[in-house]
Protein backbone atom coordinates (compact mmCIF):
# COMPACT_ATOMS: atom_id res chain seq x y z
CA UNK A 1 0.00 0.00 0.00
CA UNK A 2 1.36 3.44 -0.93
CA UNK A 3 2.68 5.53 1.93
CA UNK A 4 1.14 8.93 2.54
CA UNK A 5 3.10 12.09 1.78
CA UNK A 6 1.45 14.26 4.40
CA UNK A 7 2.89 16.47 7.15
CA UNK A 8 0.49 15.41 9.85
CA UNK A 9 2.13 17.30 12.68
CA UNK A 10 2.07 20.63 10.89
CA UNK A 11 -1.48 19.95 9.77
CA UNK A 12 -2.54 19.24 13.33
CA UNK A 13 -0.93 22.40 14.70
CA UNK A 14 -2.59 24.55 12.00
CA UNK A 15 -6.02 23.19 12.89
CA UNK A 16 -8.42 26.11 12.59
CA UNK A 17 -9.17 25.52 8.92
CA UNK A 18 -9.71 21.82 9.53
CA UNK A 19 -12.33 22.49 12.18
CA UNK A 20 -14.21 24.82 9.84
CA UNK A 21 -14.14 22.30 7.00
CA UNK A 22 -15.31 19.48 9.28
CA UNK A 23 -18.26 21.57 10.45
CA UNK A 24 -19.25 22.29 6.86
CA UNK A 25 -18.97 18.62 5.89
CA UNK A 26 -21.01 17.53 8.90
CA UNK A 27 -23.73 20.01 7.95
CA UNK A 28 -23.78 18.72 4.38
CA UNK A 29 -23.86 15.12 5.59
CA UNK A 30 -26.72 15.79 8.01
CA UNK A 31 -28.73 17.49 5.26
CA UNK A 32 -28.20 14.79 2.63
CA UNK A 33 -28.66 11.87 5.02
CA UNK A 34 -32.01 13.23 6.18
CA UNK A 35 -33.39 12.79 2.67
CA UNK A 36 -31.53 9.72 1.35
CA UNK A 37 -32.72 7.70 4.36
CA UNK A 38 -36.29 7.76 3.04
CA UNK A 39 -35.41 5.67 -0.05
CA UNK A 40 -34.02 2.13 0.24
CA UNK A 41 -32.23 2.25 -3.10
CA UNK A 42 -30.59 5.58 -2.24
CA UNK A 43 -29.36 4.30 1.13
CA UNK A 44 -27.90 1.22 -0.58
CA UNK A 45 -26.26 3.30 -3.30
CA UNK A 46 -24.75 5.79 -0.82
CA UNK A 47 -23.36 3.00 1.36
CA UNK A 48 -21.60 1.33 -1.58
CA UNK A 49 -20.44 4.59 -3.13
CA UNK A 50 -18.91 5.77 0.16
CA UNK A 51 -16.75 2.64 0.35
CA UNK A 52 -15.72 2.28 -3.26
CA UNK A 53 -14.75 5.90 -3.93
CA UNK A 54 -11.98 5.97 -1.31
CA UNK A 55 -12.09 2.73 0.68
CA UNK A 56 -14.04 4.54 3.40
CA UNK A 57 -15.77 1.72 5.21
CA UNK A 58 -15.58 3.87 8.35
CA UNK A 59 -18.00 6.59 7.28
CA UNK A 60 -20.21 4.13 5.40
CA UNK A 61 -21.49 2.97 8.79
CA UNK A 62 -23.46 6.20 9.12
CA UNK A 63 -25.93 4.58 6.70
CA UNK A 64 -26.31 1.39 8.73
CA UNK A 65 -28.21 0.06 11.73
CA UNK A 66 -25.22 0.89 13.93
CA UNK A 67 -26.31 4.53 13.75
CA UNK A 68 -30.04 3.95 14.22
CA UNK A 69 -30.32 4.30 18.03
CA UNK A 70 -27.21 6.37 18.75
CA UNK A 71 -24.81 8.76 17.13
CA UNK A 72 -22.05 6.88 15.34
CA UNK A 73 -19.33 8.79 17.20
CA UNK A 74 -20.97 8.09 20.57
CA UNK A 75 -21.08 4.38 19.75
CA UNK A 76 -17.35 4.32 18.99
CA UNK A 77 -16.55 6.28 22.14
CA UNK A 78 -18.63 4.17 24.49
CA UNK A 79 -18.00 0.75 22.97
CA UNK A 80 -14.29 1.10 22.13
CA UNK A 81 -12.58 4.24 23.45
CA UNK A 82 -13.63 4.32 27.10
CA UNK A 83 -11.10 1.72 28.32
CA UNK A 84 -8.27 4.01 27.19
CA UNK A 85 -9.61 7.43 28.18
CA UNK A 86 -7.25 8.87 30.77
CA UNK A 87 -7.60 12.63 30.79
CA UNK A 88 -8.25 13.44 34.46
CA UNK A 89 -6.80 16.41 36.31
CA UNK A 90 -4.03 14.24 37.71
CA UNK A 91 -2.85 13.03 34.30
CA UNK A 92 -0.22 15.33 32.83
CA UNK A 93 0.55 15.56 29.14
CA UNK A 94 4.10 15.81 27.79
CA UNK A 95 5.48 19.31 28.28
CA UNK A 96 5.70 20.00 24.55
CA UNK A 97 1.96 19.43 23.93
CA UNK A 98 0.18 22.58 22.80
CA UNK A 99 3.40 24.49 22.12
CA UNK A 100 3.37 24.08 18.34
CA UNK A 101 7.03 23.21 18.54
CA UNK A 102 9.13 21.07 16.25
CA UNK A 103 9.14 18.40 18.96
CA UNK A 104 5.35 18.34 19.02
CA UNK A 105 5.17 18.20 15.22
CA UNK A 106 7.58 15.27 15.18
CA UNK A 107 5.59 13.42 17.86
CA UNK A 108 2.32 13.84 15.97
CA UNK A 109 3.93 12.70 12.71
CA UNK A 110 5.46 9.66 14.39
CA UNK A 111 2.16 8.56 15.95
CA UNK A 112 0.13 9.14 12.78
CA UNK A 113 2.62 7.35 10.55
CA UNK A 114 3.01 4.40 12.92
CA UNK A 115 -0.75 4.07 13.25
CA UNK A 116 -1.24 4.45 9.49
CA UNK A 117 0.83 1.35 8.83
CA UNK A 118 -1.18 -0.49 11.48
CA UNK A 119 -4.47 0.81 10.05
CA UNK A 120 -3.60 -0.63 6.63
CA UNK A 121 -2.73 -3.92 8.29
CA UNK A 122 -6.14 -3.99 10.02
CA UNK A 123 -8.00 -3.14 6.80
CA UNK A 124 -6.22 -5.91 4.91
CA UNK A 125 -6.75 -8.42 7.73
CA UNK A 126 -10.34 -7.72 8.80
CA UNK A 127 -12.10 -5.12 6.64
CA UNK A 128 -14.89 -3.00 8.07
CA UNK A 129 -17.43 -5.82 7.99
CA UNK A 130 -15.66 -6.80 11.20
CA UNK A 131 -15.63 -3.31 12.71
CA UNK A 132 -15.24 -4.80 16.18
CA UNK A 133 -11.76 -6.07 15.34
CA UNK A 134 -10.83 -2.81 13.59
CA UNK A 135 -11.77 -0.54 16.50
CA UNK A 136 -10.71 -2.88 19.31
CA UNK A 137 -7.22 -3.42 17.94
CA UNK A 138 -6.68 0.14 16.69
CA UNK A 139 -7.33 1.95 19.97
CA UNK A 140 -5.40 -0.60 22.01
CA UNK A 141 -2.40 -0.05 19.72
CA UNK A 142 -2.84 3.74 19.75
CA UNK A 143 -2.68 3.77 23.55
CA UNK A 144 0.64 1.93 23.42
CA UNK A 145 2.10 4.14 20.68
CA UNK A 146 1.05 7.36 22.45
CA UNK A 147 2.90 6.29 25.60
CA UNK A 148 6.00 5.30 23.63
CA UNK A 149 6.20 8.53 21.63
CA UNK A 150 4.91 11.13 24.10
CA UNK A 151 6.09 9.54 27.32
CA UNK A 152 2.80 10.26 29.07
CA UNK A 153 -0.40 8.40 29.94
CA UNK A 154 -2.82 10.98 28.54
CA UNK A 155 -5.60 9.84 26.18
CA UNK A 156 -8.91 11.49 25.36
CA UNK A 157 -11.55 10.94 22.70
CA UNK A 158 -10.51 13.98 20.63
CA UNK A 159 -6.97 12.64 20.37
CA UNK A 160 -8.20 9.16 19.42
CA UNK A 161 -10.60 10.44 16.75
CA UNK A 162 -7.89 12.76 15.44
CA UNK A 163 -5.44 9.92 14.85
CA UNK A 164 -8.00 7.48 13.50
CA UNK A 165 -9.68 9.89 11.11
CA UNK A 166 -6.31 11.16 9.88
CA UNK A 167 -5.48 7.55 8.94
CA UNK A 168 -8.86 7.11 7.23
CA UNK A 169 -8.23 10.25 5.15
CA UNK A 170 -4.67 9.25 4.35
CA UNK A 171 -5.84 5.85 3.12
CA UNK A 172 -8.37 7.56 0.86
CA UNK A 173 -5.66 9.81 -0.58
CA UNK A 174 -3.45 6.80 -1.24
CA UNK A 175 -6.22 5.47 -3.48
CA UNK A 176 -7.47 8.63 -5.19
CA UNK A 177 -4.29 10.69 -5.24
CA UNK A 178 -4.16 14.27 -4.02
CA UNK A 179 -3.47 17.76 -5.27
CA UNK A 180 -0.86 19.95 -3.60
CA UNK A 181 -2.24 21.80 -0.59
CA UNK A 182 -0.55 24.90 0.84
CA UNK A 183 -0.87 26.46 4.29
CA UNK A 184 -2.26 29.96 4.81
CA UNK A 185 1.17 31.46 4.14
CA UNK A 186 0.92 30.27 0.53
CA UNK A 187 4.33 28.61 0.76
CA UNK A 188 4.33 25.80 3.30
CA UNK A 189 3.27 22.53 1.67
CA UNK A 190 0.78 20.64 3.83
CA UNK A 191 -0.01 17.99 1.21
CA UNK A 192 2.28 17.07 -1.64
CA UNK A 193 0.73 16.16 -4.98
CA UNK A 194 0.47 12.38 -5.27
CA UNK A 195 -0.81 9.81 -7.75
CA UNK A 196 -3.22 7.31 -6.25
CA UNK A 197 -3.52 3.57 -6.66
CA UNK A 198 -6.84 3.93 -8.48
CA UNK A 199 -5.17 6.19 -11.05
CA UNK A 200 -2.46 3.60 -11.57
CA UNK A 201 -5.07 0.85 -11.94
CA UNK A 202 -7.67 2.62 -14.08
CA UNK A 203 -5.99 5.71 -15.56
CA UNK A 204 -5.71 9.32 -14.49
CA UNK A 205 -9.27 10.17 -15.56
CA UNK A 206 -10.99 7.18 -13.95
CA UNK A 207 -14.49 7.65 -12.55
CA UNK A 208 -16.56 5.18 -10.54
CA UNK A 209 -20.34 5.20 -10.72
CA UNK A 210 -22.43 3.08 -8.31
CA UNK A 211 -25.80 2.14 -9.80
CA UNK A 212 -28.65 0.26 -8.14
CA UNK A 213 -29.53 -2.54 -10.57
CA UNK A 214 -32.15 -4.17 -8.37
CA UNK A 215 -34.00 -3.38 -5.14
CA UNK A 216 -36.70 -5.93 -4.34
CA UNK A 217 -39.01 -5.95 -1.32
CA UNK A 218 -39.18 -9.21 0.62
CA UNK A 219 -42.64 -10.63 1.21
CA UNK A 220 -44.18 -10.31 4.66
CA UNK A 221 -43.22 -13.88 5.57
CA UNK A 222 -39.73 -13.49 4.11
CA UNK A 223 -39.21 -10.24 6.01
CA UNK A 224 -40.37 -11.85 9.26
CA UNK A 225 -37.92 -14.71 8.77
CA UNK A 226 -35.15 -12.25 7.92
CA UNK A 227 -35.72 -10.24 11.09
CA UNK A 228 -35.60 -13.44 13.15
CA UNK A 229 -32.22 -14.27 11.60
CA UNK A 230 -31.02 -10.73 12.23
CA UNK A 231 -31.99 -11.02 15.90
CA UNK A 232 -29.97 -14.23 16.18
CA UNK A 233 -26.94 -12.41 14.75
CA UNK A 234 -27.18 -9.24 16.82
CA UNK A 235 -28.26 -10.61 20.22
CA UNK A 236 -24.85 -12.00 21.27
CA UNK A 237 -23.22 -8.66 20.37
CA UNK A 238 -25.89 -6.56 22.10
CA UNK A 239 -25.59 -8.65 25.27
CA UNK A 240 -21.78 -8.62 25.39
CA UNK A 241 -21.43 -5.21 27.04
CA UNK A 242 -21.20 -6.24 30.67
CA UNK A 243 -18.62 -8.97 30.05
CA UNK A 244 -16.58 -6.61 27.90
CA UNK A 245 -16.71 -3.85 30.52
CA UNK A 246 -15.66 -6.31 33.23
CA UNK A 247 -12.77 -7.51 31.08
CA UNK A 248 -11.43 -3.96 31.01
CA UNK A 249 -12.23 -3.38 34.66
CA UNK A 250 -14.61 -0.52 33.93
CA UNK A 251 -16.82 0.70 36.76
CA UNK A 252 -19.43 3.36 37.44
CA UNK A 253 -18.30 5.80 40.08
CA UNK A 254 -19.14 9.13 41.67
CA UNK A 255 -16.36 11.46 42.71
CA UNK A 256 -15.80 15.03 43.86
CA UNK A 257 -14.09 17.63 41.72
CA UNK A 258 -12.88 20.96 43.02
CA UNK A 259 -13.74 23.95 40.83
CA UNK A 260 -12.26 27.17 42.23
CA UNK A 261 -13.72 27.41 45.76
CA UNK A 262 -16.46 24.86 45.21
CA UNK A 263 -16.64 21.07 45.26
CA UNK A 264 -18.88 19.44 42.72
CA UNK A 265 -20.02 15.81 42.51
CA UNK A 266 -19.30 14.21 39.16
CA UNK A 267 -20.31 10.87 37.68
CA UNK A 268 -18.17 8.55 35.59
CA UNK A 269 -20.37 5.80 34.13
CA UNK A 270 -17.96 3.98 31.84
CA UNK A 271 -19.41 0.54 32.54
CA UNK A 272 -23.04 1.58 32.01
CA UNK A 273 -22.12 3.58 28.91
CA UNK A 274 -20.39 0.59 27.30
CA UNK A 275 -23.28 -1.75 28.13
CA UNK A 276 -25.82 0.73 26.75
CA UNK A 277 -23.87 1.35 23.54
CA UNK A 278 -23.88 -2.34 22.67
CA UNK A 279 -27.48 -2.92 23.76
CA UNK A 280 -28.64 -0.19 21.38
CA UNK A 281 -27.31 -2.17 18.42
CA UNK A 282 -30.35 -4.46 18.60
CA UNK A 283 -33.04 -2.99 16.32
CA UNK A 284 -34.95 -6.24 15.79
CA UNK A 285 -38.18 -5.06 17.40
CA UNK A 286 -38.44 -2.00 15.16
CA UNK A 287 -37.89 -3.39 11.64
CA UNK A 288 -41.07 -3.33 9.52
CA UNK A 289 -39.80 -4.12 6.01
CA UNK A 290 -36.76 -5.54 4.23
CA UNK A 291 -35.44 -4.96 0.70
CA UNK A 292 -32.69 -6.85 -1.10
CA UNK A 293 -30.52 -4.60 -3.28
CA UNK A 294 -27.84 -5.23 -5.89
CA UNK A 295 -25.47 -2.38 -6.79
CA UNK A 296 -22.96 -2.33 -9.64
CA UNK A 297 -19.84 -0.18 -9.66
CA UNK A 298 -18.63 0.67 -13.16
CA UNK A 299 -16.09 2.83 -14.96
CA UNK A 300 -17.14 5.49 -17.47
CA UNK A 301 -16.82 3.01 -20.36
CA UNK A 302 -19.28 0.65 -18.67
CA UNK A 303 -16.73 -1.84 -17.36
CA UNK A 304 -18.11 -3.31 -14.12
CA UNK A 305 -15.40 -3.41 -11.43
CA UNK A 306 -17.55 -4.60 -8.51
CA UNK A 307 -21.01 -5.93 -7.70
CA UNK A 308 -22.46 -5.64 -4.19
CA UNK A 309 -25.49 -7.39 -2.71
CA UNK A 310 -26.95 -6.11 0.55
CA UNK A 311 -30.14 -5.84 2.57
CA UNK A 312 -31.74 -2.62 3.72
CA UNK A 313 -34.37 -2.53 6.46
CA UNK A 314 -37.10 -0.04 7.25
CA UNK A 315 -37.67 1.46 10.70
CA UNK A 316 -40.34 4.13 10.80
CA UNK A 317 -39.92 6.20 7.64
CA UNK A 318 -36.19 5.59 7.33
CA UNK A 319 -34.08 2.84 5.78
CA UNK A 320 -30.75 1.44 6.97
CA UNK A 321 -28.21 -1.04 5.62
CA UNK A 322 -28.08 -4.20 7.71
CA UNK A 323 -24.35 -4.27 8.41
CA UNK A 324 -24.62 -7.67 10.14
CA UNK A 325 -25.33 -9.43 6.84
CA UNK A 326 -22.95 -8.05 4.22
CA UNK A 327 -19.56 -8.82 2.70
CA UNK A 328 -18.03 -5.67 1.21
CA UNK A 329 -14.63 -7.18 0.36
CA UNK A 330 -15.29 -6.74 -3.38
CA UNK A 331 -15.53 -2.96 -2.92
CA UNK A 332 -11.96 -2.63 -1.68
CA UNK A 333 -10.61 -2.57 -5.22
CA UNK A 334 -6.99 -1.88 -4.27
CA UNK A 335 -6.78 -5.31 -2.61
Task: Name a few traits of the molecule.
single chain, 335 residues, alpha+beta, four-stranded antiparallel sheet, two-stranded antiparallel ribbon, 8 strands, 17% strand, disordered N terminus
How would you summarize this macromolecular structure in one to three sentences?
The chain has 335 residues and is an alpha+beta fold. The chain contains twelve helices and eight strands.
Q: How is the topology of this model organized?
A:
Layout: H1 8-13, H2 16-36, H3 40-54, H4 57-60, H5 72-81, H6 102-125, H7 131-150, H8 157-176, E1 181-182, E2 189-191, H9 197-202, E3 209-217, H10 220-238, H11 241-248, E4 252-259, E5 262-269, H12 270-279, E6 289-298, E7 304-315, E8 318-321
Antiparallel strand pairs: 1-2, 3-6, 4-5, 6-7, 7-8
Amino acid sequence: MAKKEFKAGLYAVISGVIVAVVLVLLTIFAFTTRYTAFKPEKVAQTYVDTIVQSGDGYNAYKNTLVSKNQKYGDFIINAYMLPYVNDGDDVKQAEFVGKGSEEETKAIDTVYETMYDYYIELINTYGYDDYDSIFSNYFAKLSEVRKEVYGDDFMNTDYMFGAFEANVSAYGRSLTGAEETLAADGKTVLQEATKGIYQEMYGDDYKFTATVKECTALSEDEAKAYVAEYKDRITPVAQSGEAKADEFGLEDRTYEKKILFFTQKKSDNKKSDMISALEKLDCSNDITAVDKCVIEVALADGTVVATQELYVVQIGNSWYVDNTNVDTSALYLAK
